[in-house]
Amino acid sequence: MATLHVLSHSPFSDSRLSSCLRLLGPADGLLLCGDAVYALQPGTAQRQALDLMPTAIGLFALDEDLCARALAAPTRIQVVDYPGFVELSCRFDKVNSWL
Amino acid sequence: MSKSLLIINRQSPWSGPSAREALDIALAGGAFDLPLGMLFLDDGVFQLAPAQQPSALQQKDLGANLQALPLFGVESLYASARSLQERGLEQQTLTLAAEVLEDAALIALIDRYDQVITL
Amino acid sequence: MKFAIALFAPPHAPSSRRALRFVQAALAGGHQIVRLFFYQDAVHNASSNVVSAQDELDIPAEWRELVRQQQLDGVVCIAAALRRGILNEQEAQRYQRSAGNLDAPWDLSGLGQLHEAAQTADRLICFGGP
């Protein structure tokens, strides 16, 4: 049962991203929102860790959070709006938000 | 058939009401006889450390409530081997009989449940 | 698809607004929200006493309006609410407090409502943190 993991904490001040990456199943997805989109900051270890994720893992980011922070998503990342977030919640079997 | 729920508990025990409120979710579900599991991950494993004295902080004993989990039907208890090891905790000293799992087993565990709450 | 929504963060947290926008998008997409359950600091979203500056978002007001308009089932965890000073008239009287600050459309109830919603829904979606 594939899981969509949702992160919203900055990966520079918090361990959720690293814990989450270790617990991703082969068909899981990861949606970055809020400060978690800072993981896409170029030239960082966090960005590199995401770039190295297997292609079977879906990587997503919420557009408003990228836009607000002037961050560009690499092609590997699918940018979603709220209807897209809802669609992902339906597509995956369950949603695990790292509160 | 009832949906199974895994509660992933990442809260250190004495940093506010979060640890107790995570436990309360499990106890409430257990009372309804729902298939529930609880996984202690990251700082959540500190809830299982031995010889804690919450009275020093005028707090109620969270450990006593954790012991009640099996009585409430929450018998599937797990702890992350990595989280324990990173924090210098030994499995045999834990205050709760939790099954200690490596990352690969944790991935399979999360996969098995219908729903997950991580807090 | 039937969604159960659990919120854990206070109104000023970005995740509270995110939950609100998610619910609006789900409803607009023809999905059903079986229940909103406010737990931990999210109980403050149901307070009638939050005053936002005129040029700022008023998330509690938006939640209230959405629940009313869409006739959603909005449940606030009673134990979490009492602990944080969120009381309806009945609880204010019971504990001899000067005023309640939680009205319709919100209901105070127990954690069993979270489990019941999760059982009824196809998806449980939690929002919290920043």
TrEMBL record, chain C:
It is found in: Cytoplasm. InterPro entries: DsrEFH-like (IPR027396), Sulphur_relay_DsrE/F-like (IPR003787), Sulphur_relay_TusD/DsrE (IPR017463). One of its GO terms (biological process) is tRNA wobble position uridine thiolation. GO terms for cellular component: sulfurtransferase complex. Keywords: Cytoplasm, Transferase. The keyword Cytoplasm applies. GO terms for molecular function: sulfur carrier activity; sulfurtransferase activity. The keyword Acetylation does not apply. Belongs to the DsrE/TusD family. PANTHER family: PROTEIN YCHN, SULFURTRANSFERASE TUSD. NCBIfam families: PRK00207.1 (NF001237), sulf_tusD_dsrE (TIGR03012). This is tRNA 2-thiouridine synthesizing protein D. It comes from Pseudomonas borbori.
